[in-house]
Structure formats: C-alpha cells, structure tokens
Amino acid sequence: MNKSNSKSLSSFKGEKRLDSGDVLKIQVTGATHRIALSPSTDRFHANWVGGDITGMTLGIVGMGRIGYKIAQRAKAFEMKILYHNRNRRMTENKELPGALVEEIGGPNGVMEEHLDFLKERFTLITLKELKENKEELAEKIVCIFNWGNKPDVDSELLRCLPRLKVVASAGAGVDHLDIKMISSFGVKVANTPHAVTNCTADLAMTLLLVAARNFMEGNRQHIPQHFTIKRGHVQTNSIQVKTI
C-alpha cells in the first residue's frame, strides 16, 4: 500500500469501510471468475462500494437449476429467499426420499450426467450401502431406479423395503420386470416409453449403412487387433433436426 494513502478507509470523507464478510466473498468469487481491479487498488470511493446485501431479500422467478444454485450462494449472505415456481422445491432442511440404485458410475451404475438431476430430488442409496446398513436405510427408500436392468427387483428385495412406492425403469421396455409380482406388493412400475425413439431410429440407420458398406469387415482389416474399447457407457449425440 502507498504510504501516502495508508489511512483507514473510515477516515476519508466520502469513503466507507466494506463489511469484512462481503469483502471475502467478493474476493473469492471475483478471483475465480476473473473479476478484479488493479492489484494496487487499496480503497474504493463510496459510490463504488454500493450497498450491503447481507440479510436482504432475494426474489427468484423460476427455481430451476440456475435459480437453485443462485439461492445456495445467496444463503452465504444470510439472504431471505422468495421464489416463484410451478412446483414447490424440496428444502435442504427436509430430508429427501431415498432412491435405490445398483451403483454410481461403472458399467452397471447410474451415469454421472444424471446425478445432479437425481440428487435434487432423492438421496441416492446404492445396493451395497443397503446391504451393509439395511435396518437404517430400508425405511428411507421409496423408489428403485432401475438403470440397465439393475438392480434386480425380486420378492426378497421388495420385502425389505416397507415404504417402497415405485420401481422406475430407465428405458422403454419392462420385460425385465415381473410386473404382477411387483404389483402384489402395492408398488407401481414406471418406464420411459419414448425417451429413446430418435436414438433407436439413428442406430437402425447406422446398422443399415454399416451392413450395406461392409463397415465391420473393413474395420477388422484396418484396426490393430490389440486395440480395445474401454468398458462403460459411451455418450453419443443425436443428429435429429440438425443442419447439414
């Protein structure tokens, strides 16, 4: 700091001291988002400082993912949050219902891309966690999220989940589920019949072209035998309604 300007901010007429908590928050967010002044800046004029937002009320129209993230950050400023949304959001103070999944990640687990959406609505419990702590976790599970036909939904599993309401299958088919047996426990079955319509049509056209152009034969001739594809989910994109 320049010695000629080393007085406290509060000693300057027309200048005022920033709240220390707000200063720290500005420094953290400013540094991470590259919002900064000159390194030699050691004071702000009163007109630059603005007002204190700590404890104020913040209104959010549309509590989607962005609105929710803004609300989370506003809590650090002890702000009161008012929002308008079609549905009431679960609060962090209220325990989210549990959803049973086979695992998170891996060849049979829920994809990482789906985690944010699921965790906004459920506390995810893996099958391994349930087996290790059945007495505490079984009561919390109200949904089984069946991804890639996993976990296996049988009578033994259903008997140990007294609050289970629905088995949600992430796919169009339900032939891997014993609907009659599941219904006998008073549990409903849900699926996503049209979620992969475009993807399936794209894949059918791909297979048609692969077969017509002998793609696999050419691939075997030109790709080294030691070449392997890592197991797991391969993320692809649809060409539906794209511009060419």
UniProtKB/TrEMBL annotation:
Keyword check for Hydrolase: no
Sorted UniProt keywords: Oxidoreductase
Segments forming domain D-isomer specific 2-hydroxyacid dehydrogenase NAD-binding: 45-94
Pfam families named in the record: 2-Hacid_dh, 2-Hacid_dh_C
Alphabetized InterPro entries for the sequence: D-isomer_2-hydroxyacid_DH, D-isomer_2_OHA_DH_cat_dom, D-isomer_DH_CS1, D-isomer_DH_NAD-bd, NAD(P)-bd_dom_sf
Keyword Oxidoreductase: yes
UniProt domain D-isomer specific 2-hydroxyacid dehydrogenase catalytic: residue ranges: 111-204
Entries under SUPFAM superfamilies matching the protein: Formate/glycerate dehydrogenase catalytic domain-like, NAD(P)-binding Rossmann-fold domains
PROSITE patterns: D_2_HYDROXYACID_DH_1 (PS00065)
Family the UniProt entry places it in: Belongs to the D-isomer specific 2-hydroxyacid dehydrogenase family.
Matching PANTHER family: 2-HYDROXYACID DEHYDROGENASE-RELATED (PTHR10996), GLYOXYLATE REDUCTASE 1 (PTHR10996:SF257)
Name used for this protein in its record: Uncharacterized protein
Taxon lineage: Eukaryota, Metazoa, Chordata, Craniata, Vertebrata
